[in-house]
Amino acid sequence: MFKKILIANRGEIACRVIKTARRMGIATVAVYSDADAGALHVKMADEAVHIGPSPANQSYIVIDKIMEAVRQTGAEAVHPGYGFLSENPKFAEALKAEGVAFIGPPVGAIEAMGDKITSKKLAGEAGVSTVPGHMGLIADAEEAVKISREIGYPVMIKASAGGGGKGMRIAWDDDGAREGFQSSKNEAANSFGDDRIFIEKFVTQPRHIEIQVLADGHGNAVYLHERECSIQRRNQKVIEEAPSPFLDEETRAAMGAQAVALAKAVDYTSAGTVEFIVDGDRNFYFLEMNTRLQVEHPVTELITGIDLVEQMIRVAAGEKLGFAQSGLTIDGWAIESRLYAEDPYRNFLPSIGRLTRYRPPQEVAEAERAVRNDTGVFDGGEISMFYDPMIAKLCTWAPTRAAAIEEMRLALDRFEIEGIGHNLPFLSAVMDHPKFVAGEMTTAFIEEEFPEGFDGVALGGETLRRIAAALAAMHRISEIRRTRITGRMDNHERTVGTDWNVALQDVEFDARIEADRGGASVTLDGRTYRVESDWTPGQPLAVLKVDGSPLVLKVAKISGGFRVRHRGADLRAHVRTPRQAELARLMPQKEAADTSRLLLCPMPGLIVSVEVSEGEEVQEGQPLCTVEAMKMENILRATRKGVVTKINASAGDSLAVDDVIMEFE
Question: By CB neighbour count within 10 A (0-12 exposed, 13-18 middle, 19+ buried), where does 506 fall?
């Protein structure tokens, strides 16, 4: 077995590999850029080597710099994680030439299956069902349009060396094909150093299901069942689960057999994933093979009990698999929620900055439930503009799907993040969505269920009543604290009233509180709720019981009440005396500033190009400029007809959120 391995990656996956290596008694080496000098993976590793400036194309994907770190530390093997150099055959070749083990598949398998065009050709030759498309190289945008017409819209434009949603666009017409081709090429070149593009038919209403395979160098190969990855946004997976609620045993076995056959056809070793799209009749089509560890591998580990990183290390060291297909059963259900640094209220655009508070839920591993959080950040750390915006992967396991979903709901409730935009509210909203709960989602779930974007959740009446009762009890506690601090308390709690008005989500409740040592009984319009909690003023997380059922609220004090976040809702709740409530109803509402004549930068990013000039008349839907952030290009378009009166930014400028890019007449 290896004595020392280097992890050629960063963030949560580097931390993940370090944990397994440490358990196996293997020393680890981290590499880091300028931006990651204080990163968690650097602190966790036994050694760390600086490899260059912050941009990945000057550090993490520069083969020579990684090789120098290998030589400097004497590492015997390298785990590439995912992304960066994980599917780069030149990197695997360089390691082989140096006599260093690559903890991944052989070079031939990477070349055959890592390239999306070649893999589809080989899959077809192996008898695997594939989606119609053009697998040859495409010269320019006009050729892309011609090919798209021949295939038939809609089409998917994809980077050959792509992954993680980078370099992918859906085109519904000729204009979309032209724009998508150029944007995909740009993203592919920037992210992978390879701008080759291919086009295939986009299957509407599909489910995205993938099979995890594992093979050793002794002819043994197995599949570790499937993962459902249909909840996606911009071709980036958001929620995954294992197994799929859609597959039956027959389809699962057929997909697994094809995945293993494909792996054996290219002499594959190590962990890999064969991705399929599956239609409503459970017909499945090969999509691509990822010749690396997948982001969502934890859900497979949770239902099989197999540590995939450990198996990759053992296979790279020449060991045989210690189990056969017959021994790989499905135990329970696992769900993964990807926590991203992105603002769901701004169409999920990236967010950067400092994590002023980062408190994930406690990890547990019990007989009936498990909570796991794979992360690469820490309280007070920075989310950089240079890398992928994923903060953490929160996973839960339980014996049934319903129980796993409930564990996820509670874990999300307890996850505290402040300082940046993040998608926790959206993840909570999905967990409560009827279609997800029923397992009836497709890859179009987000665009169908949130067609106007995500602007929060309107909580149901009974949930609002439970929250109102909790807030009334919490306000009483705050008032007791306040009277003690100000010295205005004459005798016990006489200065704290019993009658209050709780206003939230445009609803008001009249509340009466009767407190005792065990909690408080709160009566709302004739209905009494028992509220119990050890919450104290200033705590940002309130863990309560209302009528014996758990209620977890993220709370912050505001003037006259609380800001409350719960299950995708973000509310401003006011707790007032009856007289204060009466006066508040007479107050005029403040109107928001008019920004309709301004194009504001929706995220921190770099202006790639400006497509219009001052004095130009623009039409609705016309591209105005392109902004790049976290390796993704975003085209900003005119929302209505108008004339550009002033342009405040040019290509190359770095802008903050809400900086004015241009103004209109």
Answer: exposed
Which pLDDT score is estimated for 162? Answer: 67
- Which pLDDT band holds residue 631 (cuts at 50, 70, 90)? low
Q: Where are the domains of the chain?
A: 4-103, 106-131+207-331, 132-201, 461-584, 598-664
If you classify domain 598-664 with CATH, what class do you get? mainly beta
106-131+207-331 is a CATH 3.10.20.30 domain: no
Residue 340 host element (H or E): strand 333-340
Given strand 623-629, what is the order of strands in its sheet? 632-637, 623-629, 605-610, 654-655
Q: What fold is seen in the domain 461-584?
A: Glycoprotein, Type 4 Pilin (3.30.700)
Q: Which residues are catalytic?
A: 288
Residue 600 phi, psi (nearest 5): -100, 145
Residue type, 325: Q
**Residue 7 token pair:** 């992890």
What lies within 8 Å, CB to CB, of 426 at 6+ separation is: 238, 344, 348, 454, 568
Can you give the pLDDT at residue 617? 94
Cα–Cα nearest to 335, from 394, 271, 378? 394
Q: How far apart are CA 320 and CA 55, in angstroms?
A: 39
Contacts of 665 (CB under 8 A, 6+ apart): 597, 642, 643, 644, 645
Q: Say which CATH class 132-201 falls into.
A: alpha beta
User: What class is the 4-103 domain?
Assistant: alpha beta
Q: What's the pLDDT score for residue 412?
A: 97
* E strand residue ranges, 462-567: 499-504, 507-516, 519-524, 527-533, 541-546, 549-558, 561-566
Which of 426, 422, 295 has the alpha carbon at shortest distance from 359? 422
Using left for φ > 0, alpha for ψ between -120 and 50, and beta otherwise, residue 13 falls in: alpha
**Model-level pTM greater than 0.70?**
yes
pLDDT digit string, tens, across residues 295-348 = 999 999 999 999 999 999 999 999 999 999 999 999 999 999 999 998 888 778
